[in-house]
Amino acid sequence: MQEKEVLLLDQNTANQIAAGEVVEKPASVVKELVENALDAGATNIEVSIFQGGTEYIRVEDNGSGMSEANARMAVLRHATSKLRKASDLLSLTSLGFRGEALPSIASVSNFTLLTRTDDEEFATSIHIDGGSNMEVSSAGGSKGTTVIVENLFFNVPARRKFLKTVSTEGRYISELLTKLALARPDVHITLKNNDKEVLNAPGDGDLKNTIRQLYGKNVSEELLTVDFKDPKVKISGFIGKPTLLKNTRQWQTLLVNGRSIQNKMLAKAIDHAYQSQIPKSGFPFAVLSIQVDTASIDVNVHPQKSEIKFSDDSLVYRAMFKALTDALTKPMSARKEEITLLEDNPLREVMPEPNLFAKPNPEAITNPPREAAPYEPFGGKKSGLSMENIFKNNAGIFKTPEQKSFGTKNSGTITTEPQGFVGNEPKDYEEASAPSMSMHEAVEEFAKTELFASATESADKENIYFTDTESGIATIWPIGQVDRTFIIAQSDDCLYLIDQHAAHERILFDKFCALKDSVPAQQLLMPLYINMPEEEIAFIEEHAEEFFRMGVDAGAAGENMLRVSSLPVDIKAEDAEDFLSEIGKAINELRILNPSDLRQEILHMTACKAAIKAGQVLNMRQMRQLIIDLLNTTHPFTCPHGRPCMIAIDSDKLYKMFKRTGF
């Protein structure tokens, strides 16, 4: 093969090749020009486009402008005012620094630059067609710089062929300017697309107000503040509540020293902070500004400066995770008001503290006393029904739950511990066979007495006080249950809808997560044998220790048979097969599970299987206790799978729903 002569490319060809890296699409042009405007100290930037920026782009700013000499130099390749030597990259504070943007843009378009400084009488106008035939003249113009780019890629048809539709390219520009406006809330930025204003950032310096203007009121009302300060890393901004989700990362804006960037490590930190609060298919809202020492980052790793490298990734990851976890944790807490009863109040003796989700005693329900001694309530009025006997003989409704056993694999010892209401389901008392005087009839008789009025009056005073980080002290109390699935509660100015299964799931999950070593297990009297694919059984045996710490003691009992000797105390034997099948499904979906992810998956499933189910009847005390426990969890608004478990509807929303906005 004949050797070819090596030639030096001419300036225009070199600029067009460089433009392929710097100017990928119309949004790239807008990015470079707006960043130059920000570096020039502009406080007002106006962007106008036609045909998605492919035919016309105009960027006007009120920055410092350039003299004629600087303007002539600015359109030459590698000419910049941002740095002087390579070491300046370690202390770089400007957005641009390479000196490639203007010559690259001018080489693939009809380019016009109009600029004037404050102390010059006339502006300098420079026009370039496709990187050649530069024309310089004087013209009238205000202080600042205006750049007009027409017929983008007219001389590079191969690049123009790869552009998206006009609407898509216009959307890219809008998304870009949104991120730049969030990076600089002190700058007024507007975008007009085909003479229609599609973006208007207020430029008042208030980030939350900028978010409200760009994303709407509904988004701004669902934000949590992030404020993390460390000697080496400072993180500030806003993140959305777990209910505010998008199906892409479009709503996540990450800023490092004021530069909008993309970083997989930071994105992963956000995902991990929201773990167990959002569905796997959703992405939370985030506008986060990270401040680090300029010497600890390298911004010169991507042609479009959209990626950076950190000298210590783990430090920034931990800071990001901690900042978001602090913002998401404990949005509210709750306590129950103590009720002081009079010394002679018979309720002190006849109403023991109930176990909220204990199994009822059907024998006690269906066989109340046939003959009751007369009882004299307050006021001296006689009643033929002894409430003392009713409550004492029906104490099975509030009986103590069975103690469940668990132990450690190494010690072989078995201990017992009461498990509260976990795993004990309240039953519908109407299913019991009809007694000579049913419990329902007994309660109806009781409701006619003055003692009932006294008890109700006391119970009504038993409110739940909770502290919301944004609204201070408030009171919440349950109203009732809808479809045996949803609890309705209220405060003075807010209505709460609570999914009882999701709420209990969150309570149990947080309880399990607090057990740092191992989940209490119960030894089964008779081992369970479950059909399962061989590869899933092999995985369980391979991670036997991790499974045992989660309360599952299982091993192979044949080619496709799993032998289960113990389960978490909150999993019923009849739910064991479904529970382990869910684990197998998770293994198949995730394929590679590290111990941390495996623990999360098993805790999710344990909490889900052990939680009270939709369709179960709860009494007022059960609902009250469930609300208290939910408000004392770390994330009361979502279940571990990311579904909402509590929805708040404030009075403003209620007024709007009923079209009473004028009141």
Integer average pLDDT: 75
Order of neighbouring strands in the sheet with most strands:
5-4-3-6-2-1-7-8
* Structural class by SSE content: alpha+beta
* Beta-strand content bin: 15-25%
**The biggest beta sheet, please?**
8 strands, mixed
The proportion of residues forming helix, as a percent range, comes to 25-40%
Would you identify the regions where 5 or more consecutive residues have pLDDT less than 50? 338-436, 450-461, 469-473
**Radius of gyration over all CA atoms, rounded:** 34 Å
Q: Figure out the total of helices.
A: 22
Bulk shape: elongated
From the N-terminal CA to the C-terminal CA, the straight-line distance is: 88 Å
The counted number of beta strands is 28
State the gist of this model.
The protein is an alpha+beta fold and 663 residues long.
Notes on the structure:
This protein has 22 helices and 28 strands. The protein has 663 residues and is α+β, with helices and mostly antiparallel strands. The strands form seven sheets. It has an eight-stranded mixed beta sheet. It has a six-stranded antiparallel beta sheet with strand order 18-21-22-23-24-28. α2 (26-39) packs parallel to α6. The chain is elongated.
Record the SSE blueprint.
Blueprint: H1 11-22, H2 26-39, E1 44-50, E2 56-61, H3 68-74, H4 101-106, E3 110-116, E4 123-129, E5 132-139, E6 144-150, H5 157-161, H6 166-183, E7 188-193, E8 196-201, H7 207-215, H8 217-220, E9 223-229, E10 234-240, E11 245-246, E12 252-256, E13 259-261, H9 264-273, E14 283-284, E15 286-291, E16 297-298, E17 309-310, H10 313-328, E18 332-336, H11 347-350, H12 362-366, H13 387-393, E19 404-407, E20 414-417, H14 439-447, H15 450-460, E21 464-468, E22 472-482, E23 486-490, E24 494-499, H16 500-514, E25 521-531, H17 534-542, H18 544-549, E26 553-556, E27 561-568, H19 576-590, H20 595-610, H21 620-631, E28 646-650, H22 651-657
Parallel strand pairs: 1-7, 12-15
Antiparallel strand pairs: 1-2, 2-6, 3-4, 3-6, 4-5, 7-8, 9-10, 10-15, 11-14, 12-13, 16-17, 18-21, 19-20, 21-22, 22-23, 23-24, 24-28, 25-27, 26-27
Helix pairs in contact: 2-6, 9-10, 16-20, 16-21, 19-20
